[in-house]
Amino acid sequence: MEDRETLSRRVVFAVDRFADRIRRVDVSLEDVNGPRGGVDVRCHVHVTLRDGVELDAESMSDTPLAAAGIALARVRRVVSRRVEKRVEERRSGVSLRDVASAESDEVTELVASS
Question: Are 44 and 56 in contact (CB under 8 A)?
């Protein structure tokens, strides 16, 4: 039970900064080799953003918390890049200030040529 609470805190810590953009986070842990041992715990993190985009990260390690830590760090980077990309797309668009400036330049040219 303690591992589950620790995992929940790690999930919140990893994606809390982007909470307003995330709809759902699913974390699954799987023991790939069973009781044979070794680096065999797989963690898969699936994130659904509010705009419908789905992102995944996966890692393997010898313990569930280590695998989750690696996968959550990857998810944080992926979500961060996606959010930054969306911000850049919005910034690169034409602003109202640009449109107003272009229109005032056209009016100035019309008045000057009359």
Answer: yes
pLDDT at 54: 94
Token reading at 61: 């390690």
Q: What's phi and psi for 25, nearest 5 deg? A: -130, 125
The three-class DSSP label of residue 3 is helix
Q: Distance between CA atoms of 26 and 11, rounded to whole angstroms?
A: 10
* Contact assessment for residue 85 and residue 71, using Cβ atoms and an 8 Å cutoff: no
Average pLDDT over residues 37-62: 90
Asked whether 58 and 75 are in contact (CB, 8 A), the reply is no
Structure-token pair, residue 45:
């993190």
What's the CA dihedral at 67, 70, 72, 75 to 10 degrees?
A: -130
Contact 69, 57 (CB under 8 A): no
Three-state secondary structure call for residue 9: helix
Which of residues 57 and 38 earns the better pLDDT score? 57
- pLDDT surpasses 90 at 88: no
Residue 49 identity (one-letter amino acid) = L
